[in-house]
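Now for one record.
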Amino acid sequence: MKKIFINLIIVLMFSNCGYSPIYSNKNYNFDLNKITKKENNRLNSRLAKNLKNFSNKNNQNTIYLEIDSKKTINIIAKDEKGNPSRYDMNIKMMVNINYKGNKTIQETFAASFNYNNSLNKFELSQYEKGVEESLIDKIIEDFIIYLSNI
C-alpha cells in the first residue's frame, strides 16, 4: 500500500512539469511562401524541402527566400603513409530573406563536423550521408530560430 501511494505521488508530481517539444508547435509567426535555389543541386533541394515543413500558411508575415549552399570536405590529418585519417565536413547556407514587402537581409548559417576515415568506403559514404543530414538539421534549426526572432 505504501509503494502504491509513493508511486502515485511521484506520477502526479512529474505529470505537470510543463514539458513540450520545441518544434512540435506549428504556430510559427511566418509563412515561407517561395523558396528559390540559386543552383539546382541536391543540397539546395534538401534544404528547401526541409524548410517548407516550418511554414505557417495561415500567417500574414510572408517571407521569400533565396538559398545557396555549399558543402566542402577537407582533409585535416594524414597517417604516416600520407593517407587521409581525419576529415572535416563543412556545410554553409547563404540565404537572402525578403520580408514585409521590401526588407532584404543576407545571412549565412554554417555547421561543421570532424570524423575519422574508414577503410570500408561504403561505410564511409553512409556515415558521411548521416553527418550531412545532421548538419542540415542543425543549420535549419539555427535558421528557424533566427526567423522566429525577426
Notes: Strands lie at 31-37, 62-78, 84-99, 103-116. Residues 121-148 form the longest helix (28 residues).
